[in-house]
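USER: Fancy drafting a protein?

ASSISTANT:
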Amino acid sequence: MGKGEELTTTKYLIYTQINANGIVEKPDVVGAVFGQTEGLLSNDLDLRELQRTGRIGRIKVSIYANNGKSKGEIIIPSSLDRVETAILAASLETITRVGPCEAEITTVKVEDVRAVKREQVVNRAKEIYKNMIENVSSANMKMIEEVKEAMRIHEISEYGEDKLPAGPSINSSDAIIVVEGRSDVLNLLKYNIKNTIAVEGVNVPKSIGELSKKRTTTAFVDGDRGGELILKELLQIGDIDYITRAPKGKEVEDLEKEEILVALRDKIPTEQFLTNHKDITPQDKTQKQNKKYNNENKNNNTKKEKNIIENDEISLMKDMLKEIEETGEAAILDEALNITKEINVEDLYNEIKNSNEPIDSIIFDGVISQRLVDICSLKNIKRLVAFKSMNIIKKPENIKIITMD
């Protein structure tokens, strides 16, 4: 087998340590490996046959003598699957003699070559990306922003006779977010929030009022005096279910993703908001609110109760899942959907089991199993996100399973 072929087919490297009570050389070690494992396993795992067919590579031995004893290392490249490689590694520990000497072979570790390569790729990619960013001129950055802006503008649709700026999901979503202007719609589109519509001015169009009566409606306004004026008008014209605002002094169009998610998560029912902000309540709003909340059947035919924030977060998490596809990695998220830790999927169960820190959600490149669901439920983790699930017989109520299938 050529060197290039071995490098491309190797999945695992078996590292073992050898100790012999006497002086032995490399041929003695190789002979013992082949001779004393022969017939131990099935024909499919016979070392000579495996090497002949290229399923294991050239056995590498480094050994040295000291005070009449020999010590060294044996490395065996394997293109077998994980289970077969483990069996092969265990079989090496049955060797008791090398040449004329008593010997002991111990498997130290089995290294996943692909995982090492992935780590090298990621580290190198980070270096390349850093150099790219450092070398991008201000003119290029401006051009990039213009392209991004153009892509977001392409997604904007129009609603009603007034041709109000809106996200592409405005006609299909059961829940909508009413914002002040076109720039607010664009900013929320940047973070994949597509069920928005803008009032475009202090005078709220009647089409907004009619739409709000048919959908679960959240008003999301700026944290300034202008936001208060818009909110008063919205409460006069529309049927608003929830209210939230940008941080004091900030505008929705300037908020970062974390600020948007926090604001939407902290939205409160309109009745509660007006109780705490009597200066914003329109003069005829009390009567309107009483009529709204006392009419038990009003919303039965016009609205579906749905949590808009959860839908938006799920969409964001699915996008994050696509970014780690085929990496074998897992991302641990806090309540604001910030990644607090990235680990190998193989270490995910133990990481969850041993973690003392609060975990909100987990996104990973793999399959959700009952064992993983059980430990996540025990740790009060809210969401598990992966490409698919398998054999989930018992699903706890305190955890949401999200898949792409």
